[in-house]
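Self-study notes.
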Amino acid sequence: MTNCEYVTLSTDELVGRAQALVAAGGRFQGVYAWFPPASDAELRYVATLPGQETFTGWRVPVRGHSVPSLAAISPLLGWHEREVMEMSGVAFSGHPEPERLVTAFLPRTESGPLESGTAPVLPAVSGKHVQLLPFGPVRADVVESAQFIFYYLGEGILHFHPNLFLKHRGMEKQFEGMDVGSATLLAERVVGIDSVAHAIAFVEAIEDAADCEVPARAQWFRLVAAELERIYNHLHYLGHLCHTTTLKVGEAQGKLLEERAKQINGRASGSRFLRSLVWPGGVRRELDLNVIREGLGELKPQIDAYIGLIERTTSHLDRLISTAPLSQQLAFDQGATGPIERASGVDRDLRRDHPYAAYRTLQPEIAVAQEGDAAARMRVRIAELRASIALVDKAIAQGPPEGPISAVCIPPADTEGLGWSESPRGTVLYAVHIGTDGRLLRVKIKSPSFANWRVFPSTVHDSNMMDYAINEASFGLTISGCAR
């Protein structure tokens, strides 16, 4: 593999190396456990360093020991370590939040991974006027299942606790034993509205394991598909945000434009969600560029008019400005990603910082804001929407490179790989381990909503109930991306 440079560390070296990485401006992307054949558990830490395109990683054999928690050094690892403790049975000592996360509200068992950690304990709240509201998991509208527990006084929210794993699907487990082709189709369905991003990250990991070179023409089509996915996602985001501020006309217009963008995808690829296009070694077919050119040509002035109306509607903007601010330091420390971190002044985008597909030659404009509030999050997505349209226009004007659209890509036995992409919501990361029969032994998925749900509660505490729906919509979160 070439996408990540791994070194082997002992558990005794972890704390010192973590402190040095953070001091150098590095950032952990996560940690996961896997069990090599005929071996004890092994932890894999993945991180990025400023100015370095390849990722850096650590192999840490557990050997039955308790592993020191790094959550106090890099808080974003808190959820990752809790997930490892529950699902893999590896213990972390000194964890600041040892409560169960994924299985928090399942009954405890006498043995097995559910025994790791304690059930979450809600804070003790006194005062006769303090009220408790357990909202969900069944909620109004067509939304994913989740439960949110509020302690509030009048309109002020004192404490907020999300329960996000009530329908945990065990997607990583489903990959085990699959061939890479079938697994690509599964990756597209981990988060349906990020199908292209997940497929690209997965096949990049497979291609890293196989050390195969993807044709430039295929890389070009992957870029165009990824930006088309970003366009319809951001249009949906703007429409849904209007819904939460009761701007009903804005909601209808945004979702109509989203539908028209999906229709372009359907005519160009055969799938409104651009599925069954990305494949290990390249792409399965070419996009119809005339459909994309003509469709975006008609859609662009409609989008410009729509954005102009949103940006001039003071009743909408008044609900967003200064609502639910997220500081730059908190965004970085807690692992916010995508438009959420960029709206808080963290200038990071995988398309530029760790180029993949054709992003090395066709680079997007990266939008950054400093305020970190709901209005900043909206402005970043508006800027990204415009940048995606401009990038697709530029790509089509240049035309795809000549050559094939696929190459043979069969990972050898006992190999591994790492792949990534920048989805409309942020970093998607896949780590794959290939067995002796060429099938998948282990697949680890880091989805952006897992990271952004981690930081979201910090913007809810000390806010008010009337702004909650606006705040959640401004994050653009998915439950499926968290409860994988």
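Second protein, same conventions, sequence then structure:
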Amino acid sequence: MSPAPTSLPPRSELILANLGTPAAPTPAAVRAFLAEFLGDPMVVEKPRWFWLPILHGIVLRVRPKKVAKAYEEIWSEAGSPLAAGTAALAQAVAAAHPDLRVTHCYRYGSPNLAERLAASAAAHPGSDHPIRVVPLFPQRTASSSGTMEVLTAELAKSSGLEGRLSVASLSPIAGGYVEALADSARRTLDELGGDPHLLVSFHGIPQYVDDKEGNRYSQECRATFDALLAALELPAERATLAFQSRFGFDPWIGPATDDKLVELAESGRGRVVVATPGFLTAGLETIEELGIRGREDFMEAGGEAFALAPPPVETTPMGPQPHPRFVEALSALADG
């Protein structure tokens, strides 16, 4: 849970905004989440007359059962790893800066941004402190940071918060963020040993979306990749940039992570560490897609050893632990 509000008005407020998660690892909960997520026209940029019949007639009939089973494999007593990690991150930022009010929300699911804004108004009626929404997506595109920016602008207008409510973006090469990534990757590379190859995997997007946005997303992924290698002092030949989580039939930006894992194993690079800079907390895409299925693909293709580097909010036996330098990077956004 996010920290309770203090009695004194905060100097400013941060709302850390993650994508979201089903409320439970059940087909019904997954169906509700996917209906909201995939029904957003900024997530699937297809004509509504074309996409909505497919979504409701096919996708939401077939996909929830399969996705719910995957969630069952990663669910814990604390619930979804993404939910636990996001809440822990908000708590860590709040603990480091008691003069800030820090909460979290999701773009899809609950608590959403409107709910957080209502709670803030109730906690501090009449306050004029600035409220900054921080999308937890360092590499920007319409389906992640973009849809959060649009929602924030709409709520600022409808709630009378223009001038107070704004978006603060985490840079894809922010020092504390890159340092957290490098610390995790370095530790995992050392633990695996044997000069492993580093595969840096980001969430993919359709190629036509990236082209329409001037290739901003792919360029920012590349910027993070280059900054990470520089921090690690890792030669370029020991690292590969790739993209995961393809969906639908349109061409997506590449190369594809699953293809690269097989290619690395078949080419004799038998030891691999996978880092996922676009995922700031653990979730289905890291634990299940890469940690389980990606590992299986790599080992079946002849790989010798596979390791997944933890995200900036690391899952530990004591619960999610945000990297201190990453906490600092987010805290700095409170001042715009």
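Instructor comment on the second fold: Residues 55 and 115 are 27 Å apart (CA to CA).
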